[in-house]
Amino acid sequence: MRYYFRVMNREFTAPLRSAALRNWYQRPLGRLLAEAELTALETELPTLFGYHLLVLDPPWERCYLNASRIPHQVIQSVEPLTQEQAGLGGHTEDWPIMSDTIDAIVLPHTLEITSDPHQVLREADRSLIPDGHLVIIGFNPRSLWGMRRVLTPKRQQMPWDTRFLSMSRIKDWLSLLGFDTLHCHYLLQRPPMQNLRLLEKLRLTGSAGGYVYKYLSAAYILVARKRTVIMTPLKEGYLKRRRLFPVGIPSSSQGNVRRVN
Predict the structure, then answer these.
(1) What confidence tens digit (pLDDT) does each residue in 173-213 have?
(2) Is residue 225 within 8 Å of residue 44, measured between CB atoms?
(3) Which domains can be identified in the chain, with CATH numbers?
(4) What does each C-alpha distance from 159 to 63, 217, 256 come to in angstroms?
(5) Confidence at residue 83, expressed as pLDDT on a 0 to 100 scale
(6) What is the rounded distance in angstroms from the CA atom of residue 134 to the CA atom of residue 111?
(7) Which residues face 139 on adjacent strands?
(8) How far apart are CA 219 and CA 202, in angstroms?
(9) Whole-number Å distance between alpha carbons of 76 and 95
(10) Cα gap 130→178, rounded to integer Å
(11) Which residue of 38, 86, 121, 223 has the fewest C-beta atoms within 10 A of its own C-beta?
């Protein structure tokens, strides 16, 4: 069973940016990236277990979740509510989700669209159950795509108007929140151009790896798990200072200790 919730944002710019990014995914380069991201997501979904799956504002035209083994799947969007669309109102940085209830959360470019990515991660930490999984898909800033973003004169164009966050920075933020990064890899080793014929000619073959693939990769996918902290109360006896040798050590005057030359 799937539910599609429409959620309003505090700022009017968030729905506009989300719609602009969704329109960019309709172009040739965006369709290639969407295919790579959805393929990677379909590979990760069977490894996630539980009862509730949340996907926050997917930018793709269709979000296929058939590969997931989680029965209850929720897709949350930042687009404003309309009379024809029944849904749930809320904010991107303040989810209408109870704490410790979600088994897996997918954030496809959510951290780059929002104005407060730290708050989004805190909401994910609050909503996830212990040992819950978090899947993050983001643009790779340390690549030709990141260079294209810096050199683009019109920053209003998508996706160059978003804030690219590196994989290492996301790992540091997750570590501070108590997440363990399980694995991550880069996606779509193509230069940022819209010419479909050139993209097909510049397609790299072979196993992904090395700096060449990293600098050409458009995006990455990262899977992390919320760390479970078990607090074990100490007994009163352990709080007292205990002697290392409770029975004592016989001295040499007792004749029980001999010197070894």
Answers:
(1) 999 999 999 999 999 888 887 776 666 666 655 444 556 67
(2) no
(3) 2-234 (3.40.50.150)
(4) 19, 15, 81
(5) 33
(6) 13
(7) 219
(8) 17
(9) 9
(10) 10
(11) 86
